[in-house]
Amino acid sequence: MKNINDLITKDKITSNKTYTLRIGAGSGIDSKGDIPYILELPKWLVERLHEYINSDTWKERARKSYYKDSDENYIFLTRIGSPFYTSKSNMNDIKDSILKENKRIDIQIYKGNAVRKNFDDLVKKIQEDYPWFGNIRFHDLRATFGMNIVINLQSRGINNQKCVDYIRKRMGHKNIQTTWSYLDHKEILAKNIDTQNIFENNLFNFL
After folding, report:
1. What pLDDT sits at residue 52?
2. Could you tell me the keywords of this UniProt record (predicted)?
């Protein structure tokens, strides 16, 4: 939560109307493999998140959580105050508390099961109206993000090498071959666009 507050307070917006947020090793924000890179968050999204963490809805959930209304708390909490994913820093804080209080307690580690369950329910709902709609995973949204960047850059005449350099920077790829795979998209591009449009339309109706 403190990261969103810091972005709003510092008010450093890029020319693309985004805020930059460092994640990965040394940042206090987990990333896959602790790979450090920079996220670009749209200004409107940061503002909406800032509104949410100051809302009664968030405060009610926060009161039930481990960190209460502290700046260390998560933005996204369940109705019972649990995180959807347990961060490494949260696990360390709990372990430190156990050592200080010298008592044994059960630690519930959350690994995104609730997120995946809701996502799968949404996909099944979409498939009722669109039987051809494939079985996509939550992680596929990240791939869609990468594909959208490719489409945007190539439509502006950016060459492949510059596309790869930019995508790798935005997505934090450790292996450059992973990044190059995003450029081999011509055969599946049209289908991906249809899938994305249908998913987005149903997502907002589902929420």
Report:
1. 96
2. DNA recombination
User: Are 108 and 82 in contact, with CB atoms under 8 Å apart?
Assistant: yes
Q: Degrees (nearest 5) of the Cα angle 198, 52, 196?
A: 10
Helix (H) or strand (E) holding 35, with range, is none
Q: How far is CA 197 from CA 12, 40, 54, 160, in A?
A: 32, 22, 31, 26
- Condensed to tens digits (0 to 9), the pLDDT of residues 73-109 reads 999 999 999 999 999 999 988 888 877 877 666 678 9
pLDDT at residue 41 greater than cutoff 90:
yes
Q: State the first-to-last Cα distance of the chain, in angstroms, to the nearest integer.
A: 22
| Whether 150 contacts 159, CB under 8 Å | no
Of 51-65, 132-146, 180-194, which has the strongest mean pLDDT? Answer: 51-65
Compute the distance between CA of residue 25 and CA of residue 6 in angstroms, rounded to an integer.
Answer: 19
- Name the residue type at position 128: E
Phi/psi at 85 (5° precision): -130, 135
Please name the helix (run of DSSP H) or strand (run of DSSP E) that holds residue 11, with its range, or none.
none
